[in-house]
Each structure stands twice: as structure tokens, then as C-alpha cells.
Amino acid sequence: MTRRATTRGVAATAATALAAGALALLGTGTAGAATATVTWDDYYSHFTRTVSNSTPAVGETITITTKFERTNGTEEHLYNIKDRHPACLTYVPGSAKMNNTPLNPQVDDGSDPSRDPLVSVDFGPNDWIVKNQPAFNPVLSISYTVGADCAQGAALATGMDYNGSLGFGGYYTQGPAVTVAKATSTTTLAPITGAAIGKTTILTANVTPANAGGTVTFKDGADVVGTAPVGADGTATAQWSPATAGTRTIIADYSGTATVTASSNQASVSVAPEGTGGGNDGAGSLGSLFGSS
């Protein structure tokens, strides 16, 4: 027990470096299944933790597995394992298994601020034995649902600790880290008609999801026309009084928020000379509308 405790800091450093490298390769806040794995050694114990998707979206289910191995001839009997996770991840009932054998865990959801959120499983002294043999490398798997209260775009730590016949191992933030992806926004400029020098035209941008919040900055080329908040209906508006006739590029840049990505849209608009009542470029004055980014 004492020897394992004294090397815990070294093991943690190695695992944290590996987790950071994996996240750098995968990118943060990216939707899609991006499996991530961390491994570390503590004396003759070797551990492998894998998350099925390190960049999940809100509402998705992820599975975290922990594999136990021995690298010498001494065996270890597992007595208890605690899987530690952010409070915004909710345990999926019935998902806890060891080598596909269903378990009956104790679940602490973190609602008590004095207790960490975790899933704890106890074993009989001879239920699960770890040996330096493939048939004795048990794997604990637990699934969680990603909650809307998860901080998005930030790495959230996971880890575990356990008791066994060789002592205690505490690896509370070994990883892999989970980075909840932001929702993807789309910004669209409404058709711009009747633009002319000396005339005020209303620019309107529509942002989805509609309740995203944030702001839209409207630009005439490189010049900022104005910045407006996105309303509850997803729209933002600004007044534009063009100073130059001819073809202008109007841009709508959506800022994004803590939970929604930024996006942008632009349109080519024909501006008529002063006093002509507005130009038309032959396409309803909306020259070209480019895809959102």
C-alpha cells in the first residue's frame, strides 16, 4: 500500500501528459466519436482507461472502460473500484459491467457538495483476480449521459481509485478528459433589397439555434456597420447607409457563446447611386449568398 501511494505522483504525470497529447490530436469541441485512451503503470500494475467519445455533444451517451493488468507474477484481488466523473455526467442505470458481467453499483450523483460524484462497485475477495495472463485482465465499463449543464469546450477530468489485495491506488484525474462539444450555429443574411447611397437599409441576420444568444457584427467589407444582440427568435438587425455605389460585400459575423459555435455569412449587394431609389443587380439585388461557416 505504501509503495503504491509514493509513486502515484509519477504515474499521474505520465498519464496527464498522454491525455493532453490525445486531446491535441483530436481537437476540442469537435462533434463525432473521438475515442481517447490513457495508460499508466504503478509498480507492476498496468492500467488502461478509454472513453468511447472524448468530444460528445449534450445528450449523447459515452462509455468509459478501465482495464487492469499485472506485469509480474504476483496476482491482485480486486475489492472495490470507484469510477470518478464530472457531476454533469449521469450514470446510465444497468450499464456498469465487469467483463460484460452486470454489476450492482452504488451511485453518488454529486448532489451533496460534500461528496464527489462517482460510481462504486464492491467485489468478493475472489470475484475478480488480476494476473499476468490475458484471461485475468478484467475490464470495468460504465456509461454516462452528457448533461446540458456540462461546461462546453473545456476539458472535464475523469479518473478512478480502487482497493485490492496489494493496497490502494488513487488516480482521481488520470483521464481520459472529456470535452463536451458546442452546438453548431448557422448564420444567414436575409435578402438585401433597394440599397442606395443616402438611403438607410435594414440588415437582418438569422442565427440557429434560435435561442443561442450572443451578438452579430455586421460589416460592409472591412468596415463595421454595427453590432446587435441576437433576439430570442434568432434574429439580429442593424441599419446600413452605404456611402459608395457599386457592388458591396455585406458580412454577418455571429460571436458564438459558451455553448454554441461562432459562424458567419456574407452576401454581394448592388448599391445604386444617390437618388435612384435603389439598385438591382439582376438577381433581386442579392448578388450571391455564400454558405455559412
Question: Would you kindly provide a written description of the structure presented here, covering whatever features stand out?
Answer:
With 293 residues, this protein is mainly beta. The protein folds into 2 domains: 2-171, Mu homology domain, subdomain B (Immunoglobulin-like, Sandwich); 186-289, Immunoglobulin-like (Sandwich), CATH 2.60.40. Helices cover 8% and strands 42% of the residues. It contains 2 helices and 21 strands. The chain has helices spanning 2-6, 8-26; strands at 36-42, 45-51, 61-70, 76-84, 89-91, 97-98, 101-102, 106-108, 118-122, 129-130, 139-146, 159-164, 167-171, 186-189, 201-208, 215-220, 223-229, 235-240, 246-254, 263-271, 286-289. The strands form 4 sheets. Strands 1, 2, 3, 5, 6, 7 and 11 form a 7-stranded antiparallel sheet that branches. Strands 4, 8, 9, 10, 12 and 13 form a 6-stranded antiparallel sheet that branches. It has a 5-stranded antiparallel sheet with strand order 17-16-19-20-21, with no helix packed on it. It is rod-shaped and about 90 Å long. Residues 1-31 and 279-293 have low confidence and may be disordered.
Number of helices: 2
Choose one word for the global shape. Answer: rod-shaped
H-E order: HHEEEEEEEEEEEEEEEEEEEEE
Helix content bin: under 10%
Oligomerization category of the chains in this entry: single chain
Mean pLDDT value:
86
State the low-pLDDT regions, or none.
1-31, 279-293
CATH level 1 name of the largest domain:
Mainly Beta
